[in-house]
Amino acid sequence: MRLLIELVVAFASTIGFGIITNIPKRTLLPAGITGALAWVVYVVVAGQTTNLILPNLLAATTIGLLANIAAIWVKAPVNVMYIPSLVSLVPGAIIYMSMKDFTLGRETAAQAGLVKTLSIAIGLAVGFVIAEAIFKPIRRPLRHWFEARR
After folding, report:
1. 40 near 85, Cβ under 8 Å?
2. Is pLDDT of 10 > 80?
3. What pLDDT shows up at residue 148?
4. Rounded to whole angstroms, what are the CA distances from 44 to 7, 17, 49, 67, 102?
5. Which of 7, 30, 75, 129 is the most buried if burial means most Cβ atoms within 10 Å?
6. How far is C-alpha 135 from the geometric centre of its chain's CA atoms?
């Protein structure tokens, strides 16, 4: 039940961020689905491991693959799908707490938070690179398949 609630909230937050960032209306639903499924991947993997990078890497790979498919389907740039789908994975609270610790003179806690943030950022970046590497050979055939179906 909890996973279903998280799926719905991730879908709503992705759609909401898509509206705020003014992405085209035809891309809201695919972006919402992409963001929600990526969050589910993150939650499931995070529940199975104590590793910080792996859940973010797999969630970013999920975003990369699904966003590329959706971008071809709705004929939109893939970045339009990436940005709102990524909102749930951005470590904003960790960055905020690290900056707060830094300004309060707690350098050790600030450093730990910033290392955590960089680890998450590296996991997300590598996940997107992996998704692009996987998707590159199938992009053209998939585009032709979608065009044949229209």
Report:
1. no
2. yes
3. 85
4. 11, 23, 9, 20, 32
5. 30
6. 16
